[in-house]
Amino acid sequence: MANPHGFDLVPRDVWGARAPKSPEVMKNPVPYVIIHHTYQPGACNTTEECIKAMKSMQDFHQLERNWSDIGYNFAVGGDGKAYVGRGWSLVGAHSPTYNDKSIGICLIGDWRYELPDNKLLDTVHKLIEYGVQIGKIAPNYLLFGHKQVREGTECPGDKLFQEISLWKHFSSTPPTVWSPNKNSKCCREIEETKVKVPPTAESLSWRRLHMSRAKLKATSTTSELLSGFAMIAMVELQINEGTAVPEWLFVMFSVCTTVLVAVHIFALMISTYILPNIDAISKLDVSELVSESPHERMKGFIQLACAFSTVLGLFLFLVEVAILCWVKFWDYSFTAAIAATVIVTPVLIIFVLFAVHFYHSLVVHRCDTSVTDLEKLEDMKKHLDEASSPV
Ligand SMILES: [Zn+2]
Question: Ligand 1 center to residue 155 CA distance, Å?
Fold first, then answer.
């Protein structure tokens, strides 16, 4: 059992492990090592006690939690021995989102207020070193305490955490923090679900809700900005006495400004009515409410607001800029006005082409998603039929 690195690595058959139910291979070398404590069972000091602790953990994870196996890749006991859990190359169940790229090492015991023996800590160091040497852990690996990658856990206990934060490979900045819905006791992880959840009518509705919300937000920002700007342009425009600007240009300017403001205000009106409802529901995250949300009933209005604000509204704004240049510069310089028009015209053409292209591809995308939505619904129906039909 002893290896050249001077610690005992206890194989599964020696501690009497049951076979894993659904082992999943992990790619080595892994970039992370994550340290845990058990909290319960408490510290073990003899091999007999440690084996008992290993068995009780496996029972809990495999039988009660219905996981594949004991969650950790390794556990280290107060007897100074390392016990093989899932081992070097199987995905563990100890730190969601990190399970498939880390070795989870559990130090058996509750290490909130006291530190494990040096014997135990030594073995942890040797185990990691050994993992690096046999190519299972990357030489430049980063080491974290469990609570750094998951909110709402004390694991691996304050005292032990202080200790590991002095270790050479410890990193104070884990790449991502996984936040659970509910806080749960340390080290008893929710294994990541590998089963793909079939989409439900509800999840599709949520997707549409988030889409509508994003659309309305974009609409209101654009409209606020552009209508405000157009109003200021009109109010601040200074007209000289005895100006040579023809009346029809003033008429064009005022018509364009008013239509522009009206279009944006209309879009704003729709989004200010609907957005708070949708926002509230998406924040509450209560599934019954999604059917009450106005985004399904008022789908047409949302599309209309979006089109008004982002297509017609933007188009009118560009026209407005061109007209404004003519009104402003008529008396001084035709060249300035012509220059502005020369610039605005191609921009307008590009804008129209882009809008057409964008809406076209959006429609194609929508058709595609409608087809897949339909297929999903049919799938659901089939499942329901199968479930309800007598065998
Ligand atoms: Zn933990």
Answer: 5
The CATH number linked to 296 is 1.20.140.140
User: Is residue 256 located within the same domain as residue 377?
Assistant: yes
164 touches 118 (CB < 8 A) = no
Task: Give the Å distance between the CA of 50 and the centre of ligand 1.
Answer: 18
Backbone angles phi, psi at 179, to 5 degrees: -110, 125
Measured at the CA of 346, the angle between CA 340 and CA 350, to 5 degrees, comes to: 135
Query: Distance between CA atoms of 264 and 352, rounded to whole angstroms?
Result: 18
Residues 244 and 315 in one domain: yes
Which residues lie at CB < 5 A from ion ligand 1? 36, 146, 155, 186-187
Assign 374 to helix, strand or coil: helix
Please tell me the distance between residue 62's alpha carbon and the centre of ligand 1 in angstroms: 17
What spacing in Å lies between the alpha carbon of 93 and ligand 1's midpoint?
Answer: 10
- What global pTM score does this model have? 0.49
Within a domain: 2? no
CATH no. for residue 66? 3.40.80.10
Which of 216-225, 320-329, 352-361, 365-374 is the least confident region? 365-374
Please give the distance of CA 378 from its chain centroid, rounded to a whole number: 28
Range of the domain at 346: 201-388
Same domain, 156 and 246: no
Number of domains forming the structure of the chain: 2
Q: Is residue 300 part of a domain?
A: yes
Residue 3 lies in a domain: no
Q: Ligand 1 centroid to 175 CA: how many Å?
A: 17
Q: What is the pLDDT of residues 72-115, one digit of tens each?
A: 999 999 999 999 999 999 999 999 889 999 999 999 999 999 99
Using pLDDT thresholds of 50, 70 and 90, give the confidence band for residue 365: confident
**Residue pLDDT, tens place only, 104-146:** 999 999 999 999 999 999 999 999 999 999 999 999 999 999 9
Single-letter code of the amino acid located at 21: K
